[in-house]
Amino acid sequence: MSAAGDLDRHRYISLATFRRSGAEVTTPVWFAALGARLYVFTMSDSGKVKRLRHTPQARVAPSNGRGRVQGAWQPATARLVTDLGVIERAHAALHAKYGWQVWTADFFSRLTGRIRRRAWIEIDVG
Fold first, then answer.
1. What domains can be seen in the chain, in order of their start residue?
2. DSSP class of residue 83?
3. What predicted TM-score, i.e. pTM, was given to this entire model?
4. Running along the chain, 126 residues long, what does each successive block of 10 average in pLDDT?
5. Cα dihedral 23, 26, 54, 6 sign
6. In the β-sheet with 32-34, what is the strand arrangement from edge to edge?
7. Are 123 and 2 in contact (CB under 8 A)?
8. CA 98, CA 108: separation in Å to the nearest integer?
């Protein structure tokens, strides 16, 4: 099983991205695996997006919803995704994994207009 597939049995991962200073910032996120990659969505003006624009260096580890790490950290590279086909497949994978929770997040994001400001992140582990 790939590293991404192994992580996919968890509900959350802690995604670590790096500031220009080299300082690590960790954030618990929902994610879904598609093949050998993980996919995450966030707001386009979030800190993780800003940090990834500077460097693709990242780390991931299984965690709980509060970010408490529950396994080994793995090196990763991450990039922002703009390909609509990839985004649609990633969204479908997240919906299959989290069901009504993703539907609810989408519903309120549409109501507030925030869905148009989503950024999608693709993560290669290992």
1. 3-125 (2.30.110.10)
2. -
3. 0.91
4. 76 96 96 94 95 97 94 96 96 94 88 88 95
5. positive
6. 24-29, 12-18, 57-63, 74-81, 118-125, 37-43, 32-34
7. no
8. 16
